[in-house]
Design brief:
It is built from 14 helices and 11 strands. The strands form 4 sheets. The protein has a 3-stranded antiparallel β-sheet with strand order 2-1-11. Strands 4-3-8 form a 3-stranded antiparallel β-sheet. Strands 5-6-7 form a 3-stranded antiparallel β-sheet, with no helix packed on it. The protein is about 40% helix and about 15% strand.
Length: about 425
């Protein structure tokens, strides 16, 4: 039997307790190779997939990818320096707003690629063209993509399919979202630089789970006035094991014999340090992703960014979410819009962030109507309402100052009698 035949058999190749790893097939071998070099000082193997089992990492990825996925994305055309209109007849409108491919919705597609960007530093999608127009975007597994830059500075994409065959893709065939990059070609993964913090959190979770599973930390101590013999010790242990099993004994009192006493143990310093360590790991991971701690459940330091939670939320929009929105907009403009259509661009509707705050939304509309930079019909369109039935909703109000009044009106006021 050959080496690979032995390797791909269902029998384990690692003996129990020797520190090896069981390989059950080609899929397990592929995962083992990909996880090489992902060890940490805590002894945990941290990859993009295993890190998602950490609550803080999952929460950060869910929050950022969800915000990008749910924000409306518009295809617009520049009419002149001041006028912009929605280009609903453009082919990209259907791809980005209705059906990016044959099985995903637009929000699913953007959420998936944003998660790839956060966990791997890169996100890829195959561009399907027909008659010079983009008709579909098929997401690609970033773990199976290799990007190389030649001496002529051209990029070459090599993608490994599920059947193992490698396919060369030209830059014109790939939508490539790049996160923080050090070489200008591929992005770096947050997991790579946050590996120790994530590994520490994973080790703490495993330690806590093991402690509770094995009841390693006793909550009570029993005192016997005299020496307890082996027979009495065995009887007491059997009684306690039966009591801890629950069932009919659940909620009943524990009866002790031979004058035994029970003392309750308070939380030890090690327990308190373990809890504080978990809180620190959670805040540390949130810092790597740029998410305010209160958004993942850590409200103890709500004033650490700005003067309160509201300022932290605004900071998240300005310094974290805006970075991802700009990445999407510029990448789409580079990879999906031909150079001949320089007047076409895409833009996320940032106003959608006000949806959850009715007071802020009302003040925003009131300011726009009062100062004349929004019309009633525009306000109604933002709320998914039809124009005013009287046909007057397109008119703009004059701002309440002289700067917005017609020149003739101001001249008439200046020549009016003073009343002396």
């Amino acid at each position: 039997m050959g080496v690979f035949s032995k390797l791909f058999t269902s029998r384990p190749v690692a003996r129990s307790g020797d520190g090896g790893r069981r390989i059950d097939g080609a899929a397990d071998l592929d995962r083992a190779i990909r996880s090489a070099g992902t060890g940490t000082a805590s002894g945990m193997s941290v990859t993009a997939d295993t890190s998602m089992r950490t609550a803080a990492v999952f929460a950060c990825v869910r929050i950022i990818s969800g915000a990008v996925a749910n924000m409306p994305l518009h295809v617009k055309r520049r009419v002149d320096d001041l006028t912009r209109v929605d280009q609903t007849d453009h082919p990209l409108w259907k791809v980005l707003r209705k059906k990016p491919n044959g099985w995903q919705t637009p929000s699913q597609f953007r959420r998936m690629l944003t998660a790839h960007l956060l966990l791997r530093g890169n996100a890829y999608a195959q561009i399907v063209m027909s008659r010079g127009r983009v008709i579909a975007l098929n997401p690609l597994n970033p773990d199976r993509m290799e990007v190389q830059q030649g001496d002529d500075l051209r990029l070459v994409y090599t993608y490994t399919r599920r059947d193992g065959r490698k396919v060369k893709l030209a830059p014109q065939q790939v939508l490539h979202l790049v996160g923080l990059t050090l070489d200008g070609v591929t992005g770096v993964s947050v997991i790579t630089y946050a590996r120790e913090s994530i590994g520490l959190s994973m080790a703490q979770e495993r330690h806590g789970a093991t402690t509770f599973r094995n009841s390693a930390r006793p909550s009570i101590v029993m005192k016997h006035p005299k020496q307890l013999g082996e027979e009495g010790l065995a009887f007491l242990r059997a009684s306690l094991d039966d009591y801890r099993q629950g069932g009919d004994s659940e909620g009943k009192a524990l009866i002790l014999e031979e004058g035994m006493e029970v003392d309750r143990l308070s939380m030890t310093a090690e327990d308190a340090q373990w809890i504080e360590g978990r809180k620190f790991s959670r805040s540390d991971i949130a810092m790597f992703f740029g998410v305010p701690p209160h958004m993942i459940g850590d409200t103890e330091k709500s004033t650490s960014w700005g003067s309160g939670i509201e300022q932290q939320g605004q900071g998240f929009v300005t310094y974290t979410l805006e970075d991802h929105l700009t990445c999407w907009e510029e990448t789409i403009a580079r990879d999906l819009i031909p150079d001949a259509e320089m007047d076409i661009y895409v833009r996320f509707n940032r106003r959608a962030l006000l949806r959850g705050d009715s007071k802020a939304r009302s003040q925003y509309y009131q300011s726009g109507l009062q100062w004349g930079w929004m019309s009633p019909d525009e306000v109604r369109s933002f709320e998914d309402m039809n124009p005013r039935p009287d046909g007057q909703g397109h008119k703009f109000n004059a701002p309440p100052n002289t700067a917005g009044r017609p020149a003739q009106e101001k001249d008439d006021d200046d020549q009016s009698p003073s009343g002396d």
